[in-house]
Amino acid sequence: MQLKYIIFNCYGRPQKAAINMVKTKKSFIERITGAKQMEDNDSRESMPIYSEDEESEMVMSTNSYPNSFNSVSEEEDYSDDAEGQLTIDVYQTDNDVVIKSTIAGVKPEDLDVSINNDMVTIKGERKNEERVSTENYYYQECYWGSFSRSVVLPVEVIADKIEASLKNGILTIRLPKADTTKTKKIQVRGF
């Protein structure tokens, strides 16, 4: 018996066709991909085929499915309490762990960089000085407001020697690696 698989979207709907099957035990492929097995003798004529436009419309519509992920109202999506999240690069050199982030439009005094154990946190606020009414925008993609990002460090660093600089809208944080391979001699005192 030859088996075919159909991948289902986040609503439990098939990507290209609908199929109802009852099966007691899922195969390995079904468990890791969420696909459903389809036997050769299943009729494809009875399965509705959705075009990409129809499928996109079903996904984008907030009323298509009652348990939709998009059921949050726009007011909740863009609340004033929401915090933006920075995009970052984290890499290592021989001596340092380096964190870089684009933080254009933010003054150094509006940034708060802190370390707690093995976690670095970057917080700040991007202020929009210009007030433009919403109906006058053609596009509004820039994020204005507070943001934060925490990064768990992959190695131990020397907290007292961390340096942070902001140049041309790029925040660079250099965290010197602690030399954990070096053996330290501990003197034993007698009483």
CATH level-3 fold name of the largest domain: Immunoglobulin-like
Order of helices and strands: EHEHHEEEEEEEE
Please compute the radius of gyration using only Cα atoms: 27 Å
Q: What amount of the residues lies in strands? A: 25-35%
Average pLDDT works out at 73
Number of domains: 2
Describe the global form: flat
- Top-tier CATH class of the largest domain: Mainly Beta
Based on the structure given, which CATH architecture of the largest domain is correct? Sandwich
Q: Reading side by side through the largest sheet, how are the strands ordered?
A: 3-8-7-6
Number of strands: 10
Give the helix tally: 3
| End-to-end distance | 81 Å
User: What profile does the largest beta sheet have?
Assistant: 4 strands, mixed
Unreliable residue runs: 16-23, 61-80
Care to describe what's here?
By secondary structure, the chain is mainly beta. The chain has two domains: 3-66, no CATH class; 84-176, Immunoglobulin-like (Sandwich), CATH 2.60.40. The chain contains three helices and ten strands, in the order βαβααββββββββ. It has helices spanning 28-33, 52-60, 74-77; strands at residues 3-6, 36-39, 84-85, 88-92, 96-102, 111-116, 119-126, 145-152, 163-167, 170-176. The strands form three sheets. The chain has a four-stranded mixed beta sheet with strand order 3-8-7-6, with no helix packed on it. It has a four-stranded antiparallel beta sheet with strand order 4-5-10-9, with no helix packed on it. The longest helix has 9 residues, at 52-60. The model is unreliable at 16-23 and 61-80 (pLDDT under 50).
